[in-house]
């Protein structure tokens, strides 16, 4: 079952069928019981009528009824029969309707006792009620009789059948109506899902940029996550494309320089070697800058939060190893609660570039602090050193380094401008200031 | 000095082997991680240059295994991607320094020298022993302030002896660290080089910086002045 619609429909139909079936059975049973009770009451009333119709002779003994209270007793094969049995099990009297038939021996009942039963006699299905009667004659002698009235079940059965057919017609009709209603409700209820699917197909075909529909609350989380994924992948794609464009463009300049210098082989070999190595270095710088720029993942809502302090600690351990000889003292004041929402590699790249710069230019001392902003849940990382520092008028040059590829800046690192660009992608800010230690203070802040 | 280069790119591997050899190092090369692990475990090495992206066994894993087998020689990693995640992974696995491709050979050599010197317990790039001063960064020698020209091979002999100043270095150890394995060990070439080195460093035969201990080897006699 891979369809929500199918699942819901199947489950609801099974429940409906079970419920309607059980209802039908219960009603059927109840009707049957009440119909049997009604039959018993009717038979009892016939017995009373027969008793009333019986006469007594001069001695007060019973004479079976002559004039019968119900014409069906007199009509042969009418389906309604009566028998009066005396104590010696002798049939004392039977109704005219029973002519040519035999109800067989009937069980004698004590006076006042009755017995209701279903019989199969002479090819007939009967409901029979036997009732014991004590008839006291004038001498005070009591004679015991059993009155039995039997009615063929056809009448009863016809009632049951008609009830049943009505019942099941109604239940069946209700089932069809309910199923139809349920189908409609399901279609209506699941329509937003189909709408999302259709909208996604529009995006795939390129007819739409994002999920813009008015989706129900339950789907809002899903659609907004999808939208941010779509935006993210689009921005990554754009960045890749731009980087490739820039890469191709900017590599052409040094290649052109190399190409045009080749034919002039009368050049001094040392100068031509210097030219080659200068251009190679420039191309290397272009490639690493563009590749790293393209590799930045950017902000995404689905990223696992990264503990900033852990990244700082890893980098400091690694850089301590590389710059062991400088014997730099690193003071760390890290708030362990601050987390970066994005790719760990990006944060490592930002902080790696900034920290390496501090190690490179510091004398003996580096101070790193990480503070969370209590109110806005943002945080700020500051890295300061006691090196020569960067003059304010140089700041822009340092940050733009490597971004304008037409400029030739051999031998200068692009670390700071790289870090600055990644920070910008994440909506953060990088600020330069003078450190009380005497060197540069770089402050990076991220807002949530 | 015995150096292992583990690099899968044939061209670069051969270039490194040739240029390091020209600089007077004994060089072994391996083309993949498993071969690198074999060399690293079976040979006495002074340093290894390991590329991060290796076939069969990654550079990181190779370094981790070497360190797990108590191989403590310095390791320099080469990385093509140059991102910090790679560098940190490499350094955390046990490497001592990194170099991003492409690099200039001079830069590589400077890093090698610094690592080798550091591993021998010298914290400054200039080894000062009495009047003799050897600058590992510039690869230059001064005796009492005057520059002395040495060949690459002579320089390596002197550097090795000075890095181990005060220790007795057997001929075998010196040969192992100066020649490729297949070199004819019985030759007197080493003695000839030592003789030449003595004449260049000490033409008047007053300092006598290199002692010969008969049957045991050589010793750089002058104590380190600082560092």
Q: What does this molecule look like?
A:
The complex is a heterodimer of chains A (448) and B (227). Chain A is built from 8 helices and 14 strands. Chain A has helices spanning 4-53, 153-205, 217-261, 269-295, 308-322, 344-361, 395-400, 415-425, and strands spanning 55-56, 62-63, 80-86, 91-94, 114-121, 124-136, 142-152, 305-307, 329-334, 339-341, 365-372, 379-385, 429-434, 440-446. In chain A, strand 3 and strand 4 (91-94) form a beta hairpin. In chain A, helix 1 (4-53) runs antiparallel to helix 2 and helix 3 runs antiparallel to helix 4 (269-295). With 227 residues, chain B is an alpha/beta fold. In chain B, strand 11 and strand 12 form a beta hairpin. The longest helix of chain B is centred in the middle third of the chain and has 15 residues, at 105-119. Chain B is elongated. At the A-B interface, helix 4, helix 5 and helix 6 of A face helix 4 and strand 5 of B.
């Amino acid at each position: 079952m891979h369809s929500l619609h199918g699942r819901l429909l199947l489950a609801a139909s099974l429940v409906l069928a079970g419920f309607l079936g059980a209802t039908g059975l219960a009603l059927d049973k109840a009707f049957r019981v009440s119909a049997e009770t009604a039959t018993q009451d009717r038979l009892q009333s016939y017995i009373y009528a027969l008793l009333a119709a019986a006469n007594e002779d001069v001695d007060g003994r019973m004479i079976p009824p002559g004039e019968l209270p119900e014409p069906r007793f007199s009509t042969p094969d009418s389906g309604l029969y009566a028998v009066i049995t005396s104590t010696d099990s002798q049939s004392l009297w039977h109704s005219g309707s029973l002519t040519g038939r035999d109800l067989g021996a009937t069980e004698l009942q004590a006076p006042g006792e009755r017995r209701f039963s279903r019989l199969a006699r002479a090819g007939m299905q009967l409901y029979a009620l036997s009732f014991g009667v004590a008839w006291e004659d004038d001498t005070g002698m009591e004679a015991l009789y059993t009155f039995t009235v039997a009615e063929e079940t056809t009448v009863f059965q016809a009632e049951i059948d008609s009830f049943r057919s009505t019942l099941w017609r109604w239940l069946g009709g209700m089932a069809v109506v309910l199923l139809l209603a349920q189908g409609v409700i399901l279609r209506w209820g699941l329509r937003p899902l189909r709408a999302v699917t259709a909208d996604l197909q529009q995006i795939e075909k390129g007819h739409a940029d994002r999920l813009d529909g008015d989706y129900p609350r339950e789907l809002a989380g899903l659609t907004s996550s999808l939208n941010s994924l779509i935006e993210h992948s689009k921005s990554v794609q754009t960045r890749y494309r731009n980087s490739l464009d820039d890469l191709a463009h900017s590599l052409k300049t040094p290649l052109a320089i190399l190409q045009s210098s080749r034919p002039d082989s009368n050049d001094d070999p040392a100068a031509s070697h210097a030219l080659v190595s200068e251009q190679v270095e420039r191309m290397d710088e272009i490639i690493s800058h563009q590749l790293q720029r393209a590799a930045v993942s950017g902000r995404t809502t689905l990223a696992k939060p990264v503990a900033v302090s852990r990244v700082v600690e890893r980098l400091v351990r690694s850089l301590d190893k590389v710059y062991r000889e400088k014997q730099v003292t690193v003071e760390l004041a890290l708030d362990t609660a601050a987390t970066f929402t994005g790719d760990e590699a990006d944060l490592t790249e930002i902080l790696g570039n900034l920290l390496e710069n501090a190690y490179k230019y510091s004398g003996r001392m580096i101070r790193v602090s990480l503070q969370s902003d209590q109110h806005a849940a943002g945080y700020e990382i500051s890295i300061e050193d006691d090196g020569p520092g960067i003059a304010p008028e140089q700041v822009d040059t340092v940050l733009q380094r490597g971004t304008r590829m037409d400029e030739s800046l051999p031998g200068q690192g692009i670390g700071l401008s790289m870090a600055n660009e990644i920070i910008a992608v994440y909506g953060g800010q990088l600020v330069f200031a003078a450190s009380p230690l005497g060197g540069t203070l770089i402050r990076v802040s991220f807002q949530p | 000095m015995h150096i292992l280069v583990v690099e899968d790119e044939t061209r670069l591997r051969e270039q490194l082997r040739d240029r390091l050899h020209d600089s007077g190092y004994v060089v072994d090369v391996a083309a993949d991680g498993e071969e690198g692990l074999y060399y690293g475990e079976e040979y006495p090495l002074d340093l290894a240059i390991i590329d991060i992206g290796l076939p069969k066994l990654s550079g990181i894993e190779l370094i981790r295994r070497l360190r797990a087998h108590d191989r403590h020689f310095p390791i320099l990693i080469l990385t093509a991607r140059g991102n910090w995640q790679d560098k940190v992974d490499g350094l955390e696995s046990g490497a001592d320094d990194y170099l991003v491709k492409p690099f200039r050979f001079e830069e590589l050599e400077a890093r090698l020298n610094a690592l080798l010197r550091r591993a021998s317990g010298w914290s400054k790039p200039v080894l000062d022993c009495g009047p003799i001063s050897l600058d590992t960064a510039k690869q230059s020698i001064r005796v009492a302030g005057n520059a002395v020209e040495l060949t690459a091979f002579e320089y390596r002999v002197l550097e090795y002896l000075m890095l181990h100043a005060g220790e007795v270095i057997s001929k075998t150890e010196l040969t192992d660290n100066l020649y490729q394995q297949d070199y004819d060990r019985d030759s007197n070439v080493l003695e000839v080089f030592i003789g030449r080195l003595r004449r260049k460093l000490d033409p008047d035969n007053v300092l006598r910086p290199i002692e010969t201990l008969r049957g045991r080897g050589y010793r750089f006699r002058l104590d380190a002045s600082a560092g």
